[in-house]
Amino acid sequence: MSTTNCYHCGEDCANTPIDFDDKSFCCNGCKTVYEIFSTNNLSYYYDIQSAAGATPKIVEGKYDFLASESIVEKLTEFNDGAMQIVNLYIPHIHCSSCIWVLENLNKINPAVSNSQVDFPKKTVRITYASDITSLKDIVLLLAHIGYEPYISLDDYDQKKKSVNRSLLYKLGIAGFAFGNVMFLSFPEYFDLASNKTNGGEYWLNEYEGVFRWLMFTFSLPVVFYAGKDYFISAFKGLRSKILNIDVPIALGILVLFVRSTLEIIFDWGPGFFDSLTGLVFFLLLGKFFQQKTYSFLSFERDYKSYFPIAVTRILSNGKEETTQIYTIERGDRLLIRNEELIPVDGILINGNAKIDYSFVTGESEPVYKTSGDKIFAGGKQLNGAIEMDALKTVSQSYLTQLWSNAVFQEDKSSKFQTLTDSIGKRFTIFVLSVAFLSAGFWIYFDSSKALNVFTAVLIIACPCAIALASPFTLGNMLRIFGRKKFYLKDTQTIEQLAQIDTAIFDKTGTITTSKKSVATYEGMQLTEEEESLLKNTLRASNHPLSRILYDLLSEQNIETLDEFEEHIGKGIEGTLKDSRIKVGSANFVGKNQTEASESTAVHISTNEIYKGCFVFKNEYREGISELFNAMSKTIQLAILSGDNEGEKQRLEQLLPKLTPLYFNQKPSDKLQFIKSLQEQGKKVMMVGDGLNDAGALAQSNVGIAISENVNIFSPACDGILDATRFTELFSYIVASKKAIKIIKWSFILSLAYNVVGLYFAVTGQLEPVIAAILMPLSSVSVVAFTTVATNLLGKKLK
Amino acid sequence: MSVIYLLLAISICVAIVFFIAFIISVKSGQYDDSYTPSVRMLFEDELVKKAPEKKSEPIQLNKSLNN
């Protein structure tokens, strides 16, 4: 049987395609979007990329808070009463069709004067006339065409960010000056050893001064603007008594500049302005290359990125009002609609709660709560509206108070000494001693050359190539990992990853998948007739669990049921001839649930007699056993789980022997556990997924978040790993170790160049042209070596 | 020989013009998103072509791709 795919979203239309305009749609939502597009002359959308759309999920009242003036004021970038500009994050942006339709919004809503998509960031910047339309209308329009923007508390708190483009300016200035100084150095290159006194080329000597002072002018912005970060960093390092790599660099730049200036003032020679500007340009190029950012990912998220801006509060007189969530106080009555997030801990008062805690724990199966039960912040209500009483304020809730821990205020990167810095320290000491020794030697033999040699050593030993080795190697590794769906925050993370000796894993959602496709039956044996009835009843239901169970059961004849009824949130009921089957929750089929079951189960009764249940098991990711066995040879492993010990035996079978397993760990326990390991001198990697791991991820040396959908969810971390690549984790760690080896090899390579350069410097023969050749040559060969080596490394990765 | 001053002045002026153009383009955010414009520039042409013959063949193509 061939399946029909939805013309709009490409999903399988299942049993009931909706035909419209000769095309099939999987649901009315998709059909509506198609209608909107085709009536507004936007059907070109489907020509650029087929089936690019998303099914709109519109929840009544979800965006009511956008009617509030103060919230609109906070969200918009620009607001002058008649015109507003807003920048919205839309996770669904994924292809050129998306760009096209979002940039043609004005065909649907003429009040939109301009909309511009930033594809890498997945944002759209919309300018609209706010006296004709409103932010709420715009957001609703986007939601109706399947491009629902993601608006969270984070957007509300955010100060309007200014983009930092200073590196681009600096790179531009250094490149500009480098090119011009090279150009102006040509007369000197052609006319090396001559000057006016020994009768050189007339016009080269005549205008020598002009060329030299022009070069000096060009080098000023390079030293004082483009290179200022090196001076600042070197100064900071010295103040805290650390010799970082920027100390010899800053020293090199300074000496180059001062010596060159003196040379042209006293007409000793042409100076080293070409080397100086080239050095700064190459160094900045390295910085620029290292600065690979995944702009659509965020590594600094906290709970604010997941929490809504506003909720509905029910006042004592029964009226509803939209309130900003920071203003919620203890005892407030809140209305949580379908698909809304619970912002604070509270007690359920009214309605049937079916809460999805996947943001918090990674467990995808929702839990059911009845009135009087305690519910926790971070859960998402999935089943109609509920009312709750707030027990705490937002920042004091069980989950959110984790963020008051000091670990979230610290900057991890400042504590870590990179390989370049540790080498830089020894290098600086070495260079300074060579400089002083050779200067001392020349004072003894020929004191006129002493200063010349001293400065020449500092110039030629400037560790340009060493400083470039690490950014180019790690920057390239970062890109290679990115292509393998392993996204790291910065290059430093690779160095940290290479040093890991302990790896801690969360259980639910990290080593288990969110998909449930294994079920075991417990209870009375079903007769053949009952099994057939069960299968036919399940066939009619669209509930995800029904569909999984349907696929698991053996093939049966298709029979049409006499009666079928679906009770939303409870279960399904089917009748054929004189047998009647009920499938669903325990209460629905008539079983009194006594013990609180942690696992997901589908209960069955026929003719009001309880038969048994299918228990869905957490499925472990494929290949984790092999992964853990490979890892355990070099890395200490442990599992930290927030769940009970129910899965202990299965885990023990999967994992290498004697792997420590810890259960019932609270978010703060996980953080403390990592901290205590670090106090024993361990370098810890934490692999987790939910917000409950956020503390541990922040505390660990490397926090890796596993994500089923990279675009949507991940807590603050150092790296995000696509769940499909989980089994490759160990090979990525090994690759990081090899990357560090590549850096060490390129250090040796650049040291070889330095030795050659030092020979010229120490013997007092350093001509500007030698410096001008040697410096770029060493830089270029180091860059070429690291690029080739890392690409070879990347090819071996799966 | 003082023509060399003129030549130098011209060459530096030209260089500075390009440099200013670079600064202006960075400032106006042209380097912030280096991907979207590459897609966007392909749209305009297609739009003009599309206007007379709406709902053309690509629909068939899509269907065969999906199955």
UniProtKB/TrEMBL annotation, chain A:
<feature type="transmembrane region" description="Helical">
    <location>
        <begin position="247"/>
        <end position="266"/>
    </location>
</feature>
<dbReference type="InterPro" id="IPR023214">
    <property type="entry name" value="HAD_sf"/>
</dbReference>
<dbReference type="Pfam" id="PF00702">
    <property type="entry name" value="Hydrolase"/>
</dbReference>
<feature type="transmembrane region" description="Helical">
    <location>
        <begin position="210"/>
        <end position="227"/>
    </location>
</feature>
<keyword id="KW-0812">Transmembrane</keyword>
<feature type="transmembrane region" description="Helical">
    <location>
        <begin position="451"/>
        <end position="474"/>
    </location>
</feature>
<dbReference type="GO" id="GO:0016887">
    <property type="term" value="F:ATP hydrolysis activity"/>
</dbReference>
<keyword id="KW-1278">Translocase</keyword>
<keyword id="KW-0597">Phosphoprotein</keyword>
<feature type="transmembrane region" description="Helical">
    <location>
        <begin position="427"/>
        <end position="445"/>
    </location>
</feature>
<dbReference type="Pfam" id="PF12156">
    <property type="entry name" value="ATPase-cat_bd"/>
</dbReference>
<dbReference type="InterPro" id="IPR059000">
    <property type="entry name" value="ATPase_P-type_domA"/>
</dbReference>
<dbReference type="InterPro" id="IPR018303">
    <property type="entry name" value="ATPase_P-typ_P_site"/>
</dbReference>
<dbReference type="InterPro" id="IPR021993">
    <property type="entry name" value="ATPase-cat-bd"/>
</dbReference>
<dbReference type="GO" id="GO:0005507">
    <property type="term" value="F:copper ion binding"/>
</dbReference>
<feature type="domain" description="HMA">
    <location>
        <begin position="84"/>
        <end position="150"/>
    </location>
</feature>
<dbReference type="InterPro" id="IPR008250">
    <property type="entry name" value="ATPase_P-typ_transduc_dom_A_sf"/>
</dbReference>
<dbReference type="Pfam" id="PF00403">
    <property type="entry name" value="HMA"/>
</dbReference>
<keyword id="KW-1003">Cell membrane</keyword>
<dbReference type="GO" id="GO:0005886">
    <property type="term" value="C:plasma membrane"/>
</dbReference>
<dbReference type="InterPro" id="IPR001757">
    <property type="entry name" value="P_typ_ATPase"/>
</dbReference>
<dbReference type="GO" id="GO:0043682">
    <property type="term" value="F:P-type divalent copper transporter activity"/>
</dbReference>
UniProtKB/TrEMBL annotation, chain B:
<feature type="transmembrane region" description="Helical">
    <location>
        <begin position="6"/>
        <end position="26"/>
    </location>
</feature>
<protein>
    <submittedName>
        <fullName>Cytochrome oxidase maturation protein, cbb3-type</fullName>
    </submittedName>
</protein>
<dbReference type="InterPro" id="IPR004714">
    <property type="entry name" value="Cyt_oxidase_maturation_cbb3"/>
</dbReference>
<keyword id="KW-1133">Transmembrane helix</keyword>
<dbReference type="Pfam" id="PF03597">
    <property type="entry name" value="FixS"/>
</dbReference>
<keyword id="KW-0472">Membrane</keyword>
<keyword id="KW-0812">Transmembrane</keyword>
